[in-house]
């Protein structure tokens, strides 16, 4: 993972609501959840939720697919794994 991608992902997660959204979607697993289900679970207005989902998607942490009239959001587990690997890349070197 490039440093700028890691910074974008960490910046997106460095906000309470976005962190809650991301953690909810990680718990939901690869099937993800419809935007309405996310909003209902977290008590978020649709405009607020839309803003936060856009930020997480732009940072590469979520994927979005249309399913009929709904949008299904899923965590991008590959990006999450790359971020974790990036953060631990130089762990314990020289100790």
Can you characterise this structure?
There is one protein chain. This protein has 5 helices and 3 strands; from the N terminus they run ααβααββα. By secondary structure, it is of the alpha+beta class. The protein has one domain (3-86): Winged helix-like DNA-binding domain superfamily/Winged helix DNA-binding domain (Arc Repressor Mutant, subunit A, Orthogonal Bundle), CATH 1.10.10.10. It has a 3-stranded antiparallel β-sheet. α2 crosses α4 (46-58) and α3 (35-42) crosses α4. The two termini are 24 Å apart. The relative contact order is 0.19.
Please provide a brief summary of the model.
The chain is of the alpha+beta class and 95 residues long.
- Mean pLDDT over all positions: 95
The portion of residues assigned to helices is 55-70%
**What's the total number of strands?**
3
Low-confidence stretches: none
The fold-level CATH name is Arc Repressor Mutant, subunit A
Bin the strand percentage: 5-15%
Structural class: alpha+beta
Question: Helix count?
Answer: 5
From the spread of the alpha carbons, the general shape counts as elongated
Keywords:
3 strands; 3-stranded antiparallel beta sheet; Arc Repressor Mutant, subunit A; 95 residues; 5 helices; alpha+beta
Secondary-structure topology with pairs:
Layout: H1 3-13, H2 16-28, E1 33-34, H3 35-42, H4 46-58, E2 62-67, E3 70-75, H5 77-88
Antiparallel strand pairs: 1-3, 2-3
